[in-house]
């Protein structure tokens, strides 16, 4: 059974940092572009960032550009999101999602596999 398991969420003050991780299993990880997608309370899904299969190309939502960094380790089947200078509006459930093409979208159907999500709360 395909699994994507997120970890690293928590409560942090504005301006703080968190590092999210996504552990993948039971599919060929390096055949898939990986993504972070978030859902804020009462809002829809919002694409955050994408990294290509080899880890050489990345894209970011303008709202996180310069603050967040996506990375992956294909030897360990893991992906990460380093989040710095966190803002109140970054509060959301963060999901990792896989698609066998380099594409970022904000619909559930845009991706082949999803994790269960990890909560990030930015609050003073």
Characteristic terms for this protein:
124 residues, mainly beta, seven-stranded mixed beta sheet, four-stranded antiparallel beta sheet, 48% strand, globular
Percent of residues in helices: under 10%
Give a short account of the largest sheet: 7 strands, mixed
Total count of strands? 11
Overall pLDDT score: 96
| Rg (CA only) | 13 Å
Counted by DSSP, the helix tally is 0
Order of secondary-structure elements: EEEEEEEEEEE
Low-confidence stretches: none
Tell me the strand percentage band.
Answer: over 45%
Quaternary arrangement of the chains shown? single chain
Shape: globular
Task: Assign the structural class, choosing from mainly alpha, mainly beta, alpha/beta, alpha+beta, or little secondary structure.
Answer: mainly beta
Distance linking N and C termini: 40 Å
Walk me through this protein's architecture.
This protein is mostly beta strands and 124 residues long. Helix content is 0%, strand content 48%. The chain contains no helices and 11 strands. The strands form 2 sheets. Strands 2, 4, 5, 6, 9, 10 and 11 form a 7-stranded mixed sheet that branches. It has a 4-stranded antiparallel sheet with strand order 1-3-8-7, with no helix packed on it. Strand 5 and strand 6 form a beta hairpin. The protein is globular, with a radius of gyration of 13 Å. It starts with a strand and ends with a strand.
């Amino acid at each position: 059974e395909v699994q994507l398991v997120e970890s690293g969420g928590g409560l942090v003050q504005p301006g703080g940092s968190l590092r999210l991780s996504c552990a993948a299993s039971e599919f060929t990880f390096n055949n898939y572009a990986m993504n972070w997608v978030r859902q804020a309370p009462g809002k829809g899904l919002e694409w955050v960032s994408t990294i290509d299969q080899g880890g050489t190309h990345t894209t970011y939502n303008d709202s996180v550009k310069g603050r967040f960094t996506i990375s992956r380790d294909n030897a360990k089947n893991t992906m990460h999101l380093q989040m710095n200078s966190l803002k109140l509006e970054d509060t959301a459930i963060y999901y990792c999602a896989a698609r066998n093409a380099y594409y970022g979208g904000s619909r559930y159907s845009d991706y082949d596999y999803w994790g269960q999500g990890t909560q990030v709360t930015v609050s003073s």
